[in-house]
Amino acid sequence: MTPTDALQAWLALEHEAVWLHPVIGARHRDLLPRARTAFETHRDTRDALLRRIEGLDAEPVSTALTYDVGSLASANRARRAARDLEARISAACLTLAGVTEGDVRAYAVKNLTRAALAELTWGAKPRAFPGLP
Amino acid sequence: MGVAQATHRLDDVADAVGLDPKPQPDPEDDRLVRDAALQVSTLLALVEATASRHDGLALAPFEVILREQLAAVGGSLATTDAEPPPDDPKAALEALTEAFGDVAKTLRRDCLRAFSPALTRVLAAMSAGVAQCAQEIGDLR
Lengths: 133, 141
Hints:
- Chain A is mainly α.
- Helix content of chain A is 70%, strand content 0%.
- Chain B is mostly helical.
């Protein structure tokens, strides 16, 4: 996988996060503050990734019309969808870290930690190796 | 340690966490593996000492995580001594939180120096896992 491919895979997940969190906030009032904070974080990350990828003269992947995240009918299922997405973002950041050096690797690792901590806010338990299979 | 031994050790680390090993014989990487083992073993000794002194604190999950990490980097607890934990449980948790935070930062710094992609990923993942533990232990206070 090239660094650009890894950035694109991460961007696709950030698109999904920007779609998911408003849905969670709209359906579950008790999750609204957390969903709003998560939305703002992922929106900013998405925008930063768009700039990085455009800076590489590549065409950023676009958002999908909708995403298959399973049922969000209950608050527990919504939390599960959010933490599963953060876990996939952790994996994407870790993949990027392994194929890059310098500032891009540092950026990937910083966001790996952010995603790993975000997993906890949605009910995950700590793991020995967040992002690894 | 020679290049062949260093390569073999990095293969073991990658294999232990399910990565496909890609040997990169770099002596600096082997030093990073040894440093990671020392960091985690010292932290594990501190957790065990704190759990022994304060048996009401639910620290077992963090011991499990550190043992898993220690196994991946081939470390040993036997050679590590821990500072005595504070008598006050809250102060002991604060000391643990700070210690986990320090190790997370060190592992994050070291993963930026790694040559091997597999080692980069292992150290980065360990850093994130230790940061998760720091957050959870902080919430126990």
